[in-house]
Amino acid sequence: MVTGGMRHAGIAAVAAFTMAALAACGGGNGDDAGGSGDAGGDGDLTTIGFVAVGPEGAWRNANEQNVQDTFTKEAGFDLKYAPAANLDQKSQIDAFTAFVDEGVDLILLSATEATGWEDSLQRAQEAEIPVILVDRGIEPDDTSLYVTRLAPNNVAVAANIANWLVDNHPEGGEYITIEGPAGVGVVDERNQGFDEVISKHPEWVKVGAQTANWAVDEGKSVTETFLKSNPDLKFVFAQNDEMGLGASEAVLEAGKTVGPDGVLIATIDGTKNAMTALSEGRLSFVAEYNPLFGDQLLDAVKKALAGEDQPSSIEVTSTTFDSPEAAKAALPDRKY
Ligand code: AHR
């Protein structure tokens, strides 16, 4: 069984062979990766199996398109994109297993569910296929089972929202959290970051939390329900933009305003739709969760194939937007 420290030795052997194949194929200027192969054919390419989430909203589309735009044939890769069927984990595990059996050079994994990956990751390790986690973490977080995870820091992103709230709205009041789907790792991380800050501020009282599955319509219906049961609601923490945009519709349709005199709404992602809503006063605060980290991922993939040591997590930088002016300034160059 290949474990932690030895992890790199096995992979290094494969990578040495890959890099030799790369050299033999006249590539290897560091820009393209090259596979195990027979000069001239697709065999030259480094094969990457991307066990992806698939259609799930603006953020996901941006992230997975960015990965596909990065690992191109021109860059020396044969990226095999395997989106989950209806977010179903079994379809992801089946795709993962197929990639291991096929003997791809490396696997990228964005898990729809945080738990249930031990067996698959161990099989990849036994096959000496490096695995890199994209955005989503696994639970339990056994870092000996994967090379590294690339993602913005969910705990810090959510803490930014709580800090903005308590710093700018000491008046306090009732609030709700609209969560992503149960079982998704980032949901717990975002709750952790937000709760660690808000728990020190008794002026803000949590009156409920419910999942809305990253969706606008469910974000709207969840908020409508809470506005009926809690007419004095003052703040909505929406764990992604789509759910926050739904909450905004509910607040406005209830004849209230979005803001300190009505209901404040903060979201995570930073997509164009949310930035537009913030610029028009239909949201109060947007914490970016940057999906465009293909370059960092390419660097991590090359290091993994070369058997180089890497930290078990690589943080993707993200920023925040706290006013219509800030959103207006950012919108012209917004790529997602
Ligand atoms: O895992 C990241 C989350 O997944 C995004 O915040 C959300 O929009 C997406 O669906």
From TrEMBL:
Which residues, by range, are in coiled-coil regions?
A: none
**Alphabetized Pfam families for the sequence:** Peripla_BP_4
Span of the signal peptide: 1-23
Q: Where in the cell is it found?
A: Cell envelope
Highest taxon listed in the record's lineage: Bacteria
Periplasmic binding protein domain mapped to chain residues: 48-308
Q: Does the keyword Signal apply?
A: yes
Provide the alphabetized UniProt keywords.
Signal
Q: What is its main location?
A: other
One annotated GO molecular function:
carbohydrate binding
Say yes or no: keyword Glycoprotein present.
no
Q: Please give the InterPro entries that the UniProt record associates with this protein.
A: Peripla_BP_I, SBP_2_dom
- CC annotations in GO: cell envelope
Q: Which family does it belong to?
A: Belongs to the bacterial solute-binding protein 2 family.
Name of the protein: Sugar ABC transporter substrate-binding protein
